[in-house]
Specification:
alpha/beta, four-stranded mixed beta sheet, 13 helices, 16 strands
C-alpha cells in the first residue's frame, strides 16, 4: 500500500468513523490491521504494511475467532457458498445451510432445546429471547408478567432491551436509567471459589427478591458461570441450580445468555450442559469470528406456548435472518471445533494463563487475579490507562483491549504454548504500565 494512501486511511478513520465506546471529538488511537493468520495480527500505526508489527491476538476478536484467522476450512466454506448464493430472505424460503446449522445446534445443545431462531447478532439474540419469554407468558394468559429478574454485574448487549437487563448502576449503561424499562436486580453471585456459607447467603437473597416480585416476573436472564463485559466475574454452578429452582417454583422461564461462554470458552461446550435453561442465546464464536450470526434455542413447550399467544407467531423476523454465508461458515466452524480436542486446548491455555498470571496477585494496585476455562483476568484497583496498557502489550508481542479496571485475555484455541506465554507476558507488561501511568 502506498504510504500516502495508508496515511489517508487512518486520517479518514479518525475524522469520520466511530469505534466502540469512543468519542468523535477526542478519538482514541486505532491501528490498522494489514494482515491476519492463525492466532496472529499484523498491526500498523501508519496504515502501511511496511511498518506493521506481528502480535498474538489475546482477544480472539472479542472472543469470537476461536480458530484464529484465515482458517483454510472456514475460508473454503465461505467461498463455496458464495458460488451458490450469498443471501436469500428467510421469509417463506429456506436453504441447506440454515437447515444443516439448525440440525447441528439441536444435536450439540442439551436435550430438549430443539427449536432454533437464527438472529443477526448477540444483542439481537437477547432481544428475541426476551420477546420469547414475554410472548410465552401472554400465551399462558399472564400478560402482566413482563419484568425480568437478573443479577448485578451482568451485561447483555447494547440495544435497548438488552441494556435494560444489564446492571443499571455499575454497568456501561448507567446513563440510560429512567429511559429503559426497569427490571429486578438481585445481588451479584459470589466468586467462583466462594465458601458454602457465601453461596447460601446469596441464595437466600436471590430467593427473597424473586418471591417479592414473582407476580410480575416473566423470566430470569443471566450469563451462566461467567459474567463477561460487566466485569469478567466467574461464579459457582450452584448459583445456576438455585436460579433453575426459583424459575420452576414461580413459573418463570430461565434464559442463559451464552453468547460469550458458549463453544467451550469456560471448559464446557455449553454451560447449559450443567443446568438446562428454557432459552439459550448463542453468538460470537458461532461462526468462528467470520461473520455476524447468533441463535436462540428453546424448547417445544416454549414454542407451542408462544404460538398460543394472541399473535399466534413469534413476532420477530430480521432481514438477514438465516443468512446462507453466515450459516455455511458456522457449520464448518462447529465441525472444526467438535472434531478437534477443544477441551484439551482450553484446559492447556487456561492452565498457562492461571499459572502465568498468579505472580501478579498481591502486587500493589492489583485487586484480584482470576481465571476460568481459557480466560485470564487481572483486576486493578483503579481504571486501566488503556493507552499505556495497550502500547506496553504490543511492545511485549500481543494485542489486548483492556476495559474498566480489567486487563484480560480470551485467546484463540489454536494458540501455541509460546503464544499463550507471550499473551501472559503482555498482560504483565500492560498491568505494570497502567499502574505506573496512574500512580
Amino acid at each position: 500500500m502506498d504510504t500516502v494512501v495508508a496515511q489517508d486511511l487512518l486520517a479518514f478513520d479518525r475524522e469520520h468513523l466511530w469505534h466502540p465506546y469512543t468519542s468523535m471529538t477526542a478519538p482514541t488511537q486505532v491501528r490498522a490491521v494489514v494482515g491476519a493468520s492463525g492466532a496472529r495480527l499484523w498491526l500498523s500505526e501508519t496504515g502501511s504494511p511496511a511498518d506493521a508489527v506481528n502480535v498474538v491476538d489475546g482477544m480472539s476478536s472479542w472472543w469470537s475467532a476461536i480458530h484464529g484467522y484465515r482458517h483454510p476450512r472456514l475460508d473454503q466454506a465461505v467461498k463455496d457458498q458464495v458460488d451458490r448464493f450469498s443471501h436469500v430472505m428467510f421469509g417463506g424460503l429456506t436453504h441447506a445451510p440454515a437447515v444443516t446449522l439448525g440440525r447441528a445446534l439441536v444435536e450439540l445443545t442439551p436435550e430438549g432445546l430443539d427449536r432454533v431462531f437464527l438472529a443477526d447478532s448477540g444483542s439481537v439474540a437477547v432481544e428475541v429471547a426476551l420477546k420469547m419469554v414475554l410472548q410465552f407468558q401472554r400465551g399462558l394468559g399472564e400478560p402482566a408478567r413482563r419484568r425480568f429478574l437478573t443479577v448485578r454485574g451482568g451485561y447483555h448487549g447494547d440495544t435497548f432491551h438488552p441494556m435494560s437487563v444489564t446492571d443499571p448502576d455499575g454497568g456501561m449503561h448507567a446513563m440510560w436509567k429512567g429511559v429503559l424499562p426497569e427490571h429486578v436486580f438481585a445481588p451479584q453471585p459470589p466468586a467462583y471459589d466462594a465458601a458454602t456459607g457465601e453461596i447460601e447467603a446469596w441464595a437466600t437473597a436471590f430467593k427473597a427478591v424473586a418471591a417479592e416480585h414473582a407476580h410480575e416476573l416473566a423470566g430470569i436472564i443471566v450469563e451462566p458461570l461467567l459474567q463477561g463485559a460487566g466485569g469478567m466475574h466467574p461464579y459457582p454452578v450452584a448459583c445456576l441450580e438455585i436460579m433453575r429452582e426459583v424459575a420452576d417454583e414461580h413459573g418463570l422461564l430461565l434464559v442463559f445468555d451464552e453468547i460469550a461462554t458458549g463453544f467451550g470458552r469456560t471448559g464446557h461446550l455449553f454451560v447449559s450442559e450443567l443446568v438446562r435453561p428454557d432459552v439459550l442465546c448463542l453468538g460470537k464464536a458461532l461462526t468462528g469470528g467470520y461473520m455476524t450470526l447468533a441463535a436462540v434455542v428453546t424448547t417445544d413447550h416454549v414454542a407451542r406456548t408462544i404460538s398460543a399467544s394472541e399473535s399466534g407467531v413469534l413476532m420477530h423476523g430480521p432481514t438477514f435472518m438465516g443468512n446462507p454465508l453466515a450459516c455455511a461458515v458456522a457449520i464448518e466452524s462447529l465441525r472444526v471445533l467438535t472434531r478437534a480436542d477443544w477441551k484439551a486446548n482450553v484446559a492447556r491455555i487456561g492452565e498457562r494463563l492461571r499459572d502465568g498470571l498468579e505472580p501478579l496477585r498481591g502486587l500493589p494496585g492489583v485487586a484480584d487475579v482470576r481465571s476460568i476455562g481459557a480466560v485470564g483476568v487481572v483486576e486493578l484497583e483503579q481504571p486501566v490507562d488503556v493507552k499505556a496498557a495497550t502500547d506496553a502489550a504490543i511492545a511485549a508481542g500481543a494485542w489486548l483491549r483492556p476495559f474498566g479496571r480489567l486487563v484480560y485475555a480470551m485467546p484463540p484455541y489454536v494458540c501455541s504454548d509460546n503464544e499463550v506465554d507471550t499473551i501472559v507476558a503482555a498482560i504483565h507488561a500492560a498491568t505494570h504500565a497502567s499502574l505506573e501511568a496512574t500512580a
